[in-house]
Amino acid sequence: MKNEANKLLFAVDIAGTFVFAIEGATAAMRGNLDLLGLMVLAFATALGGGIIRDVLIGDAPPASLRDWRYAAVAFAGGAVVFFLHQFVESVPGGVILVLDAAGLSLFAIAGTQKALVFGMHPFVAILLGTITGVGGGTVRDVLLAQVPSVLRADVYATAALAGSAVMIAGCKVRVPREWAAALGGTVCFLLRVISVWQHWNLPGVRG
Amino acid sequence: MKNEANKLLFAVDIAGTFVFAIEGATAAMRGNLDLLGLMVLAFATALGGGIIRDVLIGDAPPASLRDWRYAAVAFAGGAVVFFLHQFVESVPGGVILVLDAAGLSLFAIAGTQKALVFGMHPFVAILLGTITGVGGGTVRDVLLAQVPSVLRADVYATAALAGSAVMIAGCKVRVPREWAAALGGTVCFLLRVISVWQHWNLPGVRG
Amino acid sequence: MKNEANKLLFAVDIAGTFVFAIEGATAAMRGNLDLLGLMVLAFATALGGGIIRDVLIGDAPPASLRDWRYAAVAFAGGAVVFFLHQFVESVPGGVILVLDAAGLSLFAIAGTQKALVFGMHPFVAILLGTITGVGGGTVRDVLLAQVPSVLRADVYATAALAGSAVMIAGCKVRVPREWAAALGGTVCFLLRVISVWQHWNLPGVRG
After folding, report:
1. Smallest Cβ distance to B157: which of C36, C41, C145?
2. Can you tell me the distance from the alpha carbon of A160 to that of A165, in angstroms, rounded to the nearest whole number?
3. CA distance linking residue A191 with residue A104, whole number of Å
4. Which of A58, A146, A205 comes nearest B61 by C-beta?
5. Does a structural domain hold residue A159?
6. Does a structural domain hold residue C38?
7. Which domain holds residue B84?
C-alpha cells in the first residue's frame, strides 16, 4: 500500500517535471536560444525549484540529481519542444494552463511535505513549498534576463502559497497529512485556474 | 552576561533585517511589482546575504530559515512599505542612509564572525562577511533584471570589505573579538556614510 | 608519484582559474563597472562553476573557499586586467580562445571527476562537469543582466558536455580514469577551438 502510494507520487512528480520542462523549452524557443540553451532552460525550469529547496533544507545532493530519471525526463520535455514545436504550439492555451496548474500544485505540496519531514517550522515550510513551485520559473526568467513573471502579475506564486498554507492548516487541525495535502493541492489548482479565467490579479502598490 | 549579549545581538540582527526588508520592498514598488513580488523582494534583500553565506559555509538549513522570526520580520518590513508607502517615501534620505549603513555594518561583521566560527581562513572570512552584507541587495537587483548596484558605483561593498578586514586584522593582533568586531563595524559604517556625503567613488577601469 | 600528479593537477587548476578570472574582469571592464565590480566578476567567473558544483554535490564549504589560494589567484587575475588592461586588450583573440578552451576543458573534466568521486550517477556527472565548466560564465552574464552567452550561441557548453561524455564513456569501457580524462579534455578542447575556427553553431529552433 505504502509502495503503491510512492509509485503514484513518483509518477505524478515525473509528470510535473515533464510539463515544466516543456514550458521552459518553449520560453527558450521564444528567446531565440539554440538547442543547448533550450535544454538548459527545460532542465532549470523543471528541476530548479526542487534543487533550491533541497539546498536550503540541507538535503544535498538534491533528490533530482540523485535519481537520473528526473534529468532524463526534463531533457525529454526539451526534445519534444525542439522536434515537435509546431505541435506544441498548436496545443490550446487552456490545456497548457491546466497542466501547468497541476504541476504547480504538485510541486508546492511536495515541497511543503519535504520541508516538514526535514523538521522546518510550518511557517517556513509554506515558504519552501512556494519556492519549490515557482523556483524553476524564476530561474528560467533570470537566465532570460527578465524580471521573473511570478513577481509581476497573476495569482501564481500566491496560489502555491495558499495551497501550502491550507495543507499546513489542515495538519494543525489534525487532518491526516494525505488529506491535508490533497486539499492544499486542490486549493492551489483551483485558485490558479479560476484566477486566469476571471482575470484576478494581486493589488500593486500603485493600484 | 553571555545571554544579555546574545539578546542584544539578536535585537540588532532583527533591526538590520527590518531595514533591509524595507529597502527591498521599496525597490519592488519602483519596479512596479505586485504585493507578492514586493514580499519576495523584501525577503530576498533582507535574508539573501545570510542565506548565501550559510549555504557556502555548509550551515544548512540557513539560520534565517531555522528561526521563523527572521522571515516574519522581513515580511513585516514589506507590509510596512505596502500599507504605509507614502510615509516611507517621506522619510528623509539621510535617515535611510544611516539605517542602511548600520544594517550593512552589522551584517558584514556578523558574517565575518560566523565564517570564523566555522573555521574558514581569515581571508575567506572577509569575503564571506562582504557577501553577507551585500548579497541580499545583489539578489534583489538580479531579480529586477538589473546589474547589481554594488558592482557599479559607490563605496558600498568596499565599506563592508574594509570593515571585515579591520575586524580580522584586529583579531590577528589579539584585540578581543568583541572589540575587533565593534571597530570593524564602526569603520564600515563611517566609510559608507562619509563616502556618500563626500561623493567618493572607486576608480573605474576607464577612470 | 601520486603527489606529483596532485601537484600538476593543482597547477593546471590554478592556471584555469587565472584565465577565467581575466575573462570575467575583461567583461566587467566592458560593462563599465568599478574596481570592486571587476574583482567580483573575476571571482564569480573563475570560481562560480566549481562553487555551484560543490554546493550541489553536498561538498560545503566549496573547495575554492577552503583553500584561500583560489580566491587570491582570481583577484590577481582581476588586478592584471585593471592595471594592465591595455596589454590585455592587445593579446590576440586566438591566444585568448586557446587559453579559454584549455580552462573550459580542465574545469569540465575536473568537475566530472569530482562528481564521480562523490558517487553521482554517470549521466548526472556529465551534467555536473558541464556546469563546472560553464557555471562561472553564466553567473558573470547574469550579474551583467545579460542572457548567458552559453545559452545562445557557439559550441561552448556543448564542447564541455561532449568532453565529459567522452570521459564517462571511456570509464565505462574500462579505460583507466587518467586516460579517459585526458581523452575527454582533448575532445572538449579541440571541439571548442575547431568550432570557432569553422564557425560551427548548434541548430536553433527556428533554424
Report:
1. C36
2. 9
3. 11
4. A58
5. yes
6. yes
7. 2-197
Can you give the pTM of this predicted structure? 0.91
**pLDDT above 90 covers what percent of chain C?**
62
Distant-in-sequence, close-in-space partners of A27: CB < 8 Å, separation ≥ 6: A41, A45, A140, A141, A144
Helix (H, G, I), strand (E, B) or coil at A204: strand
* Structural domains counted in chain C: 1
**pLDDT tens track for B13-23:** 888 899 999 99
DSSP lists the bridge partners of residue A204 as B34
State ipTM.
Answer: 0.87
Q: Is residue B139, in this structure, part of any structural domain at all?
A: yes
Nearest chain B residue to A156, by CA: B36
Residue B56 touches partner A, C-beta closer than 8 Å: no
A125 falls within a domain: yes
C28: which residues sit within 8 A by CB, 6+ positions away? B151, B205, C37, C38, C40, C41, C42, C78, C81, C144
pLDDT given for residue A11 in this prediction = 79
> Closest-CA residue in chain C for A70?
C124
Chain B residues inside the 8 Å CB shell of A153: 34
SS3 content of chain C, % helix, strand, coil (to 5): 80, 0, 20
Q: How confident is the model at residue C207, as a pLDDT?
A: 43
